[in-house]
Every structure is written in C-alpha cells, then in structure tokens.
C-alpha cells in the first residue's frame, strides 16, 4: 500500500475528531436537522478524504435507504455514511449526499482536549 494523499480545505472546515484530516466545508452543509444513534448529524453536499464501505440496506427514521459507511482516510474511523438510494420518493433528495456524525468530527469552532473530549468556542 502506498502513501495516502489528502486534500487540505480552506475556510470553515469540519475535520476528523481523531486525526484532524479535513472532511468538509461549512458552506457545503445542506441541513443540520439529521440524527444518528449518537446524536446530531449534518447532511453535506460533498465531502473529501473518505473511503466508502460496502452497500447495505438500512431502515432509518425516514424509511429504507441503501447506504455506504464512510471512513476517514487518515485514521480509518467511521465518520458517517453516504446515501446511495432512497426507496421513498420524498427522500430522493438525499441520494449522493453525505452524513457526517457530529460526535465523530470537529467543526470550525470546535477543538479537542488531550483527553479526547470536545469543546466549542
């Protein structure tokens, strides 16, 4: 396996909580009104520096979806998922979009303590 190259983003960046690899820009948030089993999640139009897992069917609050988990290329931590298909017509707007789970990422105004806890400015 060779060296991994990552994209560095400029602006208000969301990054991996564990290795600080850049993942997305604030400007690419489509919605902050999503939930995951660990709390808040944001819907993004695009993300960078992620690898995708296997496709699977998941029954979510809004119905059945085909998704792939997304993992940080820097450390391999799961950071969210990508919508591959939506079975309900009203949910088609999610297809091709990404969810970043807030407990897995640092936002533009968030930093991490040495003990792993997060603080927002």
TrEMBL record:
<keyword id="KW-0862">Zinc</keyword>
<feature type="domain" description="Yippee">
    <location>
        <begin position="12"/>
        <end position="109"/>
    </location>
</feature>
<dbReference type="InterPro" id="IPR004910">
    <property type="entry name" value="Yippee/Mis18/Cereblon"/>
</dbReference>
<protein>
    <recommendedName>
        <fullName>Protein yippee-like</fullName>
    </recommendedName>
</protein>
<keyword id="KW-0479">Metal-binding</keyword>
<dbReference type="Pfam" id="PF03226">
    <property type="entry name" value="Yippee-Mis18"/>
</dbReference>
<comment type="similarity">
    <text>Belongs to the yippee family.</text>
</comment>
<dbReference type="GO" id="GO:0046872">
    <property type="term" value="F:metal ion binding"/>
</dbReference>
<dbReference type="InterPro" id="IPR039058">
    <property type="entry name" value="Yippee_fam"/>
</dbReference>
<dbReference type="InterPro" id="IPR034751">
    <property type="entry name" value="Yippee"/>
</dbReference>
């Amino acid at each position: 396996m060779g060296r991994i190259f990552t994209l560095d983003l400029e602006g208000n960046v969301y990054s991996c909580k564990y290795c600080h690899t850049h993942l997305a820009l604030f400007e690419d948030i489509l919605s902050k009104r999503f939930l995951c089993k660990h709390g808040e999640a944001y819907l993004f139009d695009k993300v960078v520096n992620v690898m995708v897992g296997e496709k699977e069917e998941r029954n979510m609050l809004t119905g059945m979806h085909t998704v792939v988990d997304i993992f940080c290329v820097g450390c391999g931590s799961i950071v969210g998922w990508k919508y591959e298909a939506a079975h309900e017509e009203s949910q088609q707007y999610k297809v091709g979009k990404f969810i970043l789970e807030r407990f897995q990422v640092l936002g533009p105004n968030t930093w991490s303590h040495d003990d792993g806890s997060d603080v927002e400015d």
